[in-house]
Design goal:
This protein is α+β, with helices and mostly antiparallel strands. The chain has 2 domains: 145 residues, 3-Layer(aba) Sandwich (Collagenase (Catalytic Domain)); 139 residues, Neurolysin, domain 3 (Orthogonal Bundle), CATH 1.10.1370.10. The chain contains 10 helices and 4 strands. Helix 1 crosses helix 2. It starts with 7 loop residues before the first strand and ends with a helix.
């Protein structure tokens, strides 16, 4: 039993049938629950001493359906589910000695790779036909509708890329200084002018409300990591596309061994290169955004 009747407990097993750990899924909103979606660990997996099996959970806030009715998710909600389960896999598949480097205990600009990469399988036809079904007929999503949905992902991508990049560069500019500027808004304007920021595009986060980079060490001088993670996940999924098989077994095993299982046991560059055979390049991300 879990902490609430809505939460479900799954025993996760290895390919040989042995137990790997537990996964708890708490997907529906309720008054006592914090908003948002996240993954965390009740127990990290590690081999030190007698070792410990991972106990990982995902929290969502989907609308709970009436009794007897199915829960219906939007595309964005389904993407969130895949994203957080990617984090959960990072925790469940961990195979390290030390608990301090278990699962998602990796550098900030590497932690979103397993989650964002997993999002790519959401729209793989063989996966989509299993979950994107008409609520009344049970038929899978028509290809024409899927094509429209995928095409819409690049709408406004150029604008979004510039506004995000400006915020990331401002973050770096602030944290490269020894002391805070006396006039932050003037410093912001001068920095954006040096970057030749288009007048028609505003920063995603102006200085007065750029809470991400002023609320602790997590994203200070690290806001860039969101887009860097997209470079990583697009390049990683491109490896599967290059084989012509989104479920290529040999590549999937390299992904499991070097990314999902390795945690923070080695340098991210070493781990990624062991999986991909090379360092990531931005071309796949640019193509994904419709900018190349």
């Amino acid at each position: 039993a879990a902490w609430h009747p809505d939460a479900r407990v799954f025993v996760v097993k290895n390919a040989d049938g042995s137990e790997r750990g537990l996964f708890l899924a708490d997907y529906f909103a309720r008054p006592s629950k914090r908003s948002g979606a996240w993954m965390s660990a009740l127990q990290s997996g590690y081999r030190l001493g007698h070792g410990a099996s991972p106990v990982i959970y995902n929290i969502m806030n989907f609308a709970k359906p009436p009794v007897g009715e199915p829960a219906l998710l939007s595309v964005d909600e389904a993407k969130t589910l895949f994203h957080e389960f990617g984090h959960a896999l990072h925790g469940m598949l961990t195979d390290v000695t030390w608990p301090s480097v278990s699962g998602t205990s990796v550098s900030r600009d590497f932690v979103e790779l397993p989650s964002q990469l997993y999002e790519h399988w959401l729209t793989v036809p063989a996966v989509l036909e299993k979950h994107a079904l008409h609520v009344k007929t049970g038929k899978p999503m028509p290809k024409a509708l899927l094509d429209k949905m995928l095409a819409a992902r690049t709408f406004g991508a150029g604008f979004a890329t510039v506004e995000f990049t400006a915020s990331a560069l401002m973050d770096m500019a602030y944290h490269a200084r020894a002391e805070a500027p006396e006039a932050p808004l003037r410093f912001e304007a001068e920095t954006l002018a040096e970057l030749h920021m288009p007048d028609t595009i505003a920063m995603r986060h102006r200085t007065p409300h750029f809470g991400h980079v002023f609320s602790g060490e997590g994203y200070s001088a690290g806001y860039y990591s969101y887009m860097w993670s997209e470079v990583l996940d697009a390049d990683a999924f491109a490896a599967f596309e290059e084989t012509g098989d989104p479920f290529n077994p040999a590549l999937a095993e390299r992904l499991r061994k070097n990314i999902y299982a390795a945690g923070g046991s080695k340098d991210p560059e070493e781990l990624y290169t062991a999986f991909r055979g090379k360092m990531p390049s931005p071309e796949a991300m640019m193509a994904k955004r419709g900018l190349a």
